Amino acid sequence: MSGVLELDEEGYLNLLNTIIVNRLGDAVDIKLFHNEDRVKELVAEAHNYNVVVIMSNHDFEKVLAKDVIEFRLKKMAALGADVPKLACMPHNAKDVLTLLSATNEVNEAIDNPLITMAMGDIGKVTRIAGQVFGSSLSFGAVGKTSAPGQLSIDDLRNAENYLEIK
After folding, report:
1. Among 93, 101, 91, which Cα is nearest to 67's?
2. Is position 91 annotated as part of the catalytic site?
3. pLDDT-based confidence at 85, cuts 50/70/90?
4. Residue 66 CB: number of other CB atoms within 10 A?
């Protein structure tokens, strides 16, 4: 696990359950690649408590093939995610186009809002213009950034103002 706290599989899933049943937030981010039966249970439990499920997959090394990105996002929706989310690390412009193309395809195929983003400097364009391709949300840092290529909230707002779709 990456993040502030290192947890094993069971600890991670139990922590999510605690957050859900105690309504410690309006939404919870469940990672895609965990025990599928437990993931389904957590999704059902979250929906029982009116907690929105963002289901995510991160690849800090590369951009996956377009069909793999599409499969993962659709699988998240099939598992009951309210918002499928995928982030990856591009190495060139073609990688960025792969992610944006997959985002566009999945946006047309499912009813769920979705979130995709490419990390690093070359991925910044996906954080600013993702909405054009069907990504519903971007992340801006209020203080210290938490991911490579993440923009400050002020920079993100300024950039998005120019691309606002009406």
Report:
1. 101
2. no
3. very high
4. 16
Strand partners, 115: 85
Report the C-alpha gap between 71 and 110 in whole angstroms: 12
Q: Which amino acid is at 121?
A: D
**From the candidates 31, 34, 47, 58, which is the catalytic residue?**
58
Fold of 9-163: TIM Barrel (3.20.20)
Q: Is 58 annotated in the active site?
A: yes
Handedness of CA 11, 13, 18, 24 (dihedral sign): positive
- In this prediction, residue 2 has a pLDDT band, given cuts at 50, 70 and 90, of very low
Give the predicted TM-score (pTM) of the model: 0.85
Q: Which of these, 93, 92, 30, 98, lies nearest to 68 by C-alpha position?
A: 98
Alpha-carbon gap, residue 159 to 166, rounded angstroms: 15
